[in-house]
Write the structure tokens for this entry.
Amino acid sequence: METEIHNLLANIWFFIISLILILYVILDGFDLGVGILTLFARNEEQRTLMMSSLGGVWDANETWLVLLGGALFGAFPIVYATVLHALYVPVMAMLFGLIFRGIALEFRSLGRNKALWNVAFGIGSMTAAASQGFIIGGLLGKMPIVNDVFAGGVWDWLTSYSVTSACAVVVIYLLFGTTYLIIKTEKEIQAVNIRYAQIASMALIVLLLIIIWWVPRLHPYVLDRWAGSPVAFSCVAALLLMAFVMIFSSLRNRREFSPFFWSVVIFILAFSLISLSYYPCIIPAVISVQQAASPSKTLIFMLTGIGMMIPVMLIYNGYQYFVFRGKVTLKNVETVSY
């Protein structure tokens, strides 16, 4: 009975952490995507509009990353320790990237050398996004672990699979960023981002196909997962294909809100397809969700805290987006300090 309760709690926490990860990727993803896009802005006016579109919301979005780290540390300490040990380099690169982009966004309007802060913001965003992709690719690749301890080297995370994962994360963030800017901007800059969103969507299709082809070759047990539930996985794949059709349709018809909605749907379906393929392993072919979970008392105690934090954070995020709704234009950009 105790084992069944522990397994249930472990699965609940696996779902909660997956939910937090999804929320972080969506909310901070468009932040990072916009940051990367500033590197390709045609002029200073476009760059200012892009950065001003993030005013008032970007810092709160990163709070989900803090919550993700805390939840992972408490619920799955083995995974947390393994990630820090095996993926120390990309984790530190991600943190430095987030720090630099935050400093650049705040000091851009105060410093004399605005071009320097522009580059720092773009490079910081790119570094953070790519590092997150390397973390995911390193974690889901073939990680050498002996007796629940990482037994590899400092650069074992750097593989062709992790490079592909990094490219996929950067592209999905670019898709979030472009579709967010379609909502927040108008005229020429909106038209430019519609074209960028179409390119990002096509690139994402290619990268997802490569990853889906690659996964069972890294971890053959995934084929058994697919064969065991062919209808479920086929349905998710069909829905993913439909979501891509819908985003191309909405972009072609120049819709404003639909492209961002469908980009979110695409990410959730792709995340579900890949995570369900690996389940019940939280570190593929090495450690299961149940093995990595903390004792039942710890998981129950944490549920009370997370049950209060997530609703409060969602309400706060929702209030922010309500307050800062509407288009960003050159007329109102002077009221924003970016």
Notes: The chain has a mean pLDDT of 89.
